[in-house]
Every structure is written in structure tokens, then in C-alpha cells.
């Protein structure tokens, strides 16, 4: 339940947590695991502690931070005294906290430093379920601001090793608790809209299907607004020659191409997969071979194809799991991208997945990571 105090199982863990608490109180950021991704934490109610997060990540100051709490009591200390939880939040908190759901609340400027909200009227808050995250917050007895522990623009880290590779030399303590269960960031939900509708600002670990079901079961017929596709990007990319380089997020060093295997928009003629692979020959120069990373589902038509042997071309394959298990794809995506980066690939190809359940969040991240897309047929 959300009010139970976290239990700490070993003396070693407690010692590490206490070192981390000490650093946090000295305004030093600490890397800690959550069930979604690793976070870079600092005291949320201390503006100078929170500002160090921005410098470590190279994060633009207009991007607000999520505040993490370990109990409902702590949540209430952050809210304006006049604020009443809407029924939708009541239902969502009961069902998904602690867990990968972030909610927007009205921000009281007397309580929340403006550096946290980037001067927005709302503050984003979540209660993580990872025992180490919750124990850390409970022990420091204060909410922690924590973005994902990656340099701005890179994929979020799902292991302590990813954090070390990316932010080496800029960090103090990293609490290592192995790989993150969810693998993608929390779902960010705005339920403060005047029209009473709920808007999913970022799809994530809690699925839209589960949010809708929870509201229905609580007899709320609230509409949930969500962008299933980024139409603006889609249009740009519909012209096959447009690189669509406008947005880069969640991007490994190597450029990412999204391979759509579903039916193309009007006017786009898909290439056969085999012909597409042959176009990759153009990347080869005479001096060195080219490494191509491929992220494919295990049992899709694309995933089951064999990759052709082409002189000067080296395939590096990463499995995204079975078609019908989008939670597995979610867990593997960032690790697969970061592993290919580590292997020094020159280019990454990612297969499209269906936008149901965790697939929606997966495709949201993949679209942002991709600098171009192609339609292929198998
Ligand atoms: O799973 C997660 O949410 C992870 C772990 C560490 O908890 N954290 C995370 O934080 O993903 P970050 O900073 O990488 O992403 C925070 C997202 C951003 O898209 C930001 O724009 C949005 O939350 N956000 C934060 N405060 C907001 C606000 N007041 N209004 C609208 N969006 C907000
Ligand atoms: Mg992030």
C-alpha cells in the first residue's frame, strides 16, 4: 500500500543509503534506481541543490523536473492547502502509486522553487515504487527532484553502468540496484484542465488502457486525451527524402532510422526489405566496414528475416522481445540503444511496434530518437 514504510533488508544497503543521504543534505546530487529508469536526485525544496542537476545533465532550464515523494503525507506537504484532490487523481493514486505515474498539481510558489517548475503554474509529482528510491526519500525526509540520469538528449539509463558511461566524472554516489524493471520513464498526466479531460503529456510505464480502465471502474467517464501519432513529424517524414532532423531526444550517438512495416501513407511507395538493405551499401567506403545496429522484434516478419551477408557490412542485432509482450520491448529499448552505441555502430535501424499498451510509449521514444524513417515491406 502507498503509506507503508519501505523496509530495508541489509546493513550494507542501509550504509549506502546513509552515505547518499549525507551527500543529498550537502546539496550533492545522487544517482538512484527507480522502477522506470535511474534518476539524478537532489533536494527538491532547495533551489541550489536542484540547480546542480541542470549543470550535470546539461539540461535546458525551461524543462521542469519531477518531484519524488515516499508517502501521501509528503505529497500533501507540497500542495496548496486549499487544493482538493479531484476524484480522477484519487482513483489514479489508489491504483498506480507507488509506481510509474506522474501527476501535475497546482504549484505553490511559497513551497516549490521556481527552478523545479521552470515557472510553470504546475508541479509534476510521483511516488516511485522501487524500494531503494522510496527508502532514500524516506531517510532524507524530504522530496527529491530527479530527472533521468543521462546527459540531455541521450537515451535514459536503465542500469548503473549506463549512468557511469554517460556521466563519468560528473557524479558522486551512484546507488546500484541492477536493471530497472519498467525501462521507460513514468507516464505524465495532467488532470488539472478546465475542460475536465485528462491529458497524457508523456506516455510511459502506466498504460493509457489501464488509466482508462481505472477511471471507468471508478464510474468516471472522463475523456483521456493522448497523441497516438505525432502528425507534424509524420507529415514531414511522409516525403521520403526529408530527413526530419528537427527533434533529437533519446538519441544514441549513431543516427537512428525508424522502419515502418505497416501500410504507408498515400504517395509513399515502400521498398522491399531486401532492396532497402542493399541501399545500405552506399554507406560503405573502401577503408573500413560499416556497423549497422538492428533492433527487431523476435517473432515479427521483419524479426524472422535473415539479414543478408554483404561485404563490408557488419550487423549488430538486438532483440526487442515478442510482438505480444510490449512491456518486454519497453524494458529493452534504451538498453539496446545504449549497447549498440557502446559497440560503436555507425547507424541504427529500429522496427516499428504496434502502439498498444507499452507500445505507445515505446513508439513515442523511438520517433524522438529517429532522425528519419522508411517504409518497407517484408
Ligand atoms: O520515470 C521518470 O519519470 C524518471 C524517473 C527518474 O523518475 N524521471 C524522468 O524525469 O523521466 P525527466 O526530467 O527526464 O522527465 C520529466 C518530464 C519532462 O518531459 C518534463 O517536461 C515533464 O516531465 N514535466 C515536469 N514537470 C512538469 C510540469 N510542471 N508541467 C508539465 N510537464 C512537466
Ligand atoms: Mg529524461
TrEMBL record:
Coarse class of the protein's main subcellular location: cytoplasm
Residue positions binding L-threonine: 36, 68, 126, 146, 186
Enzyme Commission number: 2.7.7.87
Catalysis performed (reactions): L-threonine + hydrogencarbonate + ATP = L-threonylcarbamoyladenylate + diphosphate + H2O
A GO molecular-function annotation: tRNA binding
Listed SUPFAM superfamilies: YrdC/RibB
Pfam family, one: Sua5_yciO_yrdC
PROSITE patterns in the cross-refs: YRDC
Subcellular location: Cytoplasm
YrdC-like domain span: 14-206
Record keywords, A-Z: ATP-binding, Cytoplasm, Nucleotide-binding, Nucleotidyltransferase, Transferase, tRNA processing
Gene Ontology terms: cellular component: cytoplasm
Gene Ontology BP term (one): tRNA processing
Residues annotated as binding ATP: 59, 63, 148, 156, 202, 250
Stated role: Required for the formation of a threonylcarbamoyl group on adenosine at position 37 (t(6)A37) in tRNAs that read codons beginning with adenine.
Cited NCBIfam families: L-threonylcarbamoyladenylate synthase
Protein name: Threonylcarbamoyl-AMP synthase
Lineage: Eukaryota, Fungi, Dikarya, Basidiomycota, Agaricomycotina
